[in-house]
Write a structure and sequence with these properties.
CATH topology of the largest domain: D-Maltodextrin-Binding Protein, domain 2
Protein name: LysR family transcriptional regulator
GO molecular function, one term: DNA-binding transcription factor activity
Strand order of the largest sheet: 4-3-5-12-6
InterPro entries: LTTR, LysR_HTH_N, LysR_subst-bd, WH-like_DNA-bd_sf, WH_DNA-bd_sf
Strand content: 15-25%
CATH class of the largest domain: Alpha Beta
Number of helices: 10
CATH architecture of the largest domain: 3-Layer(aba) Sandwich
Family: Belongs to the LysR transcriptional regulatory family.
Structural class: alpha/beta
CATH superfamily of the largest domain: Periplasmic binding protein-like II
Number of strands: 13
Largest sheet: 5 strands, mixed
Keywords: DNA-binding, Transcription, Transcription regulation
Radius of gyration: 21 Å
Order of helices and strands: HHHEEHEHEHEEEEHEHEEEHHE
Shape: globular
Number of domains: 3
Length: 303
């Protein structure tokens, strides 16, 4: 079998384009022309003898070969970048301020902090786990450099590129029966929700109202941990995405409850010109999100 030696610059273009959802944006990020990026992708496909992208609608999505390559490309680039930093001794120093939703605190934040600390032990990350409105307010006030936040289609457009689109899910305790047992005998469906304002709370109520299903707020909490505990205790159902779902809970798969909309995920930057530490952290967060099973299960859409 012919041995293939991949060009890391080509792999970086491929990964960046998938992560940003656009190869035009990747060209801008990497300081290349769009024609140069197209040539790199063609070179990659010629090396493999297989397409890594295919047309879908007005954009492109990764093929099965492209999706397989993506994971290996991330690992190669991560190892390359760690080696380059270690050999040069160019350790970043100082601090960078990152905010994210509670959904990402236990899994993605842990991975991001670990990867960053291995390469930049002198750099301190000031992490803030908060709700969407608070994150965006802190970003606008200059108290955060990066904020990983949900974005509803009903909200005003945001300059940050969309990293993923996840379907909201009805969630109940793992051992609890399916609906309509929840709302049987004419009882309204008990909801366990984050305190208002909350995009997922609003989506759940609007979906139930459109379907003509009675509901009541059985439990409301300012924290996601409180919501998870109340649902696990059997107080009602909630609405979130598959990210961060505790093992004691499950997503309901049944026709009785109305379908829910998708919600976007964006990494917002507090400035057009990020500091070197913030830029490095930005890239690590992008890689962690793209590699998460909930966001990579169906292939990444790119333009």
């Amino acid at each position: 079998m012919r041995r293939i030696t991949f060009d890391l610059d080509v792999l970086r273009t491929f990964v960046t384009g998938v992560d940003l959802g656009s190869f035009a944006k990747a060209a801008e990020r990497l300081g290349r022309s769009t024609s140069a990026v197209s040539a790199q992708l063609k070179k990659l496909e010629d090396q493999l003898g297989l397409p890594v992208l295919r047309k879908e609608g007005r954009g492109m999505v990764t093929t099965s070969a492209g999706e397989s390559l993506l994971g290996y490309a991330r690992r190669l680039l991560e190892l390359n970048d760690e080696a380059a930093t270690a050999v040069r001794g160019a350790e970043l120093a100082g601090s960078v301020r990152l905010g994210m939703q509670e959904d990402f605190g236990e899994h993605i934040l842990t991975e991001v902090l670990g990867r960053f600390a291995r390469v930049h032990p002198r750099l301190r990350i000031e992490a803030c786990v908060a709700r969407n409105a608070d994150l965006m307010a802190q970003l606008a006030a200059g108290r955060l450099e990066l904020a990983l936040a949900w974005h509803s289609d009903a909200a005003p457009p945001a300059p940050a590129p969309e990293l993923a689109r996840l379907t909201m899910r009805w969630i109940a305790a793992a051992g609890h029966g399916d609906w309509p047992a929840w709302g049987g005998h004419g009882e309204p469906l008990p909801l366990v929700m984050m305190d208002a304002p909350c995009m997922m709370r609003s989506a759940a109520i609007q979906a139930l109202d459109r379907a003509g299903i009675a509901w009541r707020i059985a439990f409301s909490s300012p924290s996601l941990g409180g919501v998870w505990a109340a649902v696990a205790a059997g107080l009602g159902v909630t609405v979130r995405t598959a990210i961060g779902l505790p093992p004691a809970l499950r997503a309901l798969e049944q026709p009785g409850l109305p379908p829910l909309p998708v919600i976007g995920l964006r990494l917002h930057c507090g400035s057009d010109e990020l500091s070197a530490p913030a830029r490095r952290l930005h890239d690590i967060v992008l890689q962690a999100i793209a590699a998460h099973p909930a966001t990579s299960a169906h292939g990444a859409a790119v333009a």
